[in-house]
Amino acid sequence: MQLQSGIEAIRANGVKLYALSYDEPDALRDFRDVYGIDYTFLSDPDSEVIRQFGVLNTLILEDDHPWHGIPFPGTYVIDTDGVITHKFFENNLALRVGPDVLLRAIGGESQESIAADAELPDDAGPLEPEVYLEGGRLATGVMCDLVAAFDVPEGRHLYAQPAPEGMVSVDLTVDDNPGLVVKNIQRPESEPHQLEGTDEVFQVHHGRVELRLPVTVNSGMVKQATHGAVQISGQVVWQACDDAVCDVPQKRRFELSVPMAAATPPGMLAPKDYDGISANEAAHFQKMRERRNRS
Amino acid sequence: MEIQTHGEQTENGWWRDVDGFVGPIQPGLGPRTDPMGEFPTGPDIGSRLPDVRAMDVDGNPFDLHRDRGAAPAIVVFFRSAVW
């Protein structure tokens, strides 16, 4: 569903898009039609492909109808030869990779982003992070990267983790927010750096430095968030040096107001007062349940 | 492989899981059965995607590699369109 919004850019890269589940064909057809999705749905009602791939969720026992048969959800990116170049799996059924991450995986460059409206002091130094949410919008459960990016000039570096004693390593954090789910930060590879004239070695970042914090909107908050925007606030800290001099550690607060994309289809777990469109989920669910109880 | 069962009950009787998602079902049960730690993610990066022979939305047989020809592709395994 969330991929539909990124499909133009994905198509522009000549990439085909398939989505497979254990639903019956007609359930997928209703879903496709109601939500206006034009990529290819595949039905695997006996979970044969899911089993062949080895991704059946075996924690759900066989007699636990109708939940048994679902995969550990995930996404593969394959090249022209059909060879897997990337894969994305999350250990929470509510989470999935966002279209912008996939675009990056297939080498697409047409990513929109919104810049942070962070207030920077007038005397801001030459080195300032750009903070933005990749894709510029959030949808429930769809992971998007909150990015803090630096372009570190030649001859300078940022301290990476772990920083030498008394120094500050570059970091990106968001403030506590019950409407937001935040996963583990992804840091670029760091390089060892030896201070001239000493044998002290520590880890640093050079050049383009991007810290990525995967975030998404809490599904339990969908009702409140659907019609508005999500506020993401937090801070970036860093310390830049060259071989001779270290700047004082810097801290920059940011606050982003991120629009919510159309809500993910509620399915059977929608709030009771959900008043959006529906793809006959309840009828299909009942049918699935009956078929599974028979078999 | 173990099941992630950690959850806190919210004021309205729903459950908040380790990632902060709030829903009506307790983590570890039925549709909220998530793995804790490592879990299988299928064929490895660098290997050919195995054959995917399933049905299209009209119930006709569908062969993914045949359909894509020589195009690169994104293949999503998702939970369900129904729940």
Proportion of beta-strand residues of chain A: 25-35%
* Strand tally of chain B: 8
Strand sequence of the main sheet of chain B, in spatial order? 2-3-4
Q: Tell me the number of strands of chain A.
A: 17
* Poorly predicted sequence stretches spanning 5 or more consecutive residues of chain B: none
Q: Report low-confidence residues of chain A grouped into runs of 5 or more.
A: 108-124
Secondary-structure element order of chain A, N to C:
HEHEHEEEHEEEEEEEEEHEEEH
Say what the CATH topology of the largest domain in chain A is: Immunoglobulin-like
Number of helices of chain A: 6
Q: What do the pLDDT scores of chain A average to?
A: 80
**Judging from the principal axes of the Cα atoms, what is the shape of chain B?**
elongated
Descriptive overview:
Helix content of chain A is about 15%, strand content about 30%. Chain A contains six helices and 17 strands. In chain A, a hairpin with a 5-residue loop joins strand 3 and strand 4. The radius of gyration of chain A is 23 Å and the shape is elongated. In chain B, the strands form three sheets. A three-stranded antiparallel β-sheet of chain B has the order 2-3-4, with no helix packed on it. In chain B, strand 2 and strand 3 form a beta hairpin. Chain B is elongated, with a radius of gyration of 18 Å. At the A-B interface, strand 1, helix 2, strand 2, helix 3 and strand 3 of A face strand 4, strand 5, strand 6, helix 1 and strand 8 of B.
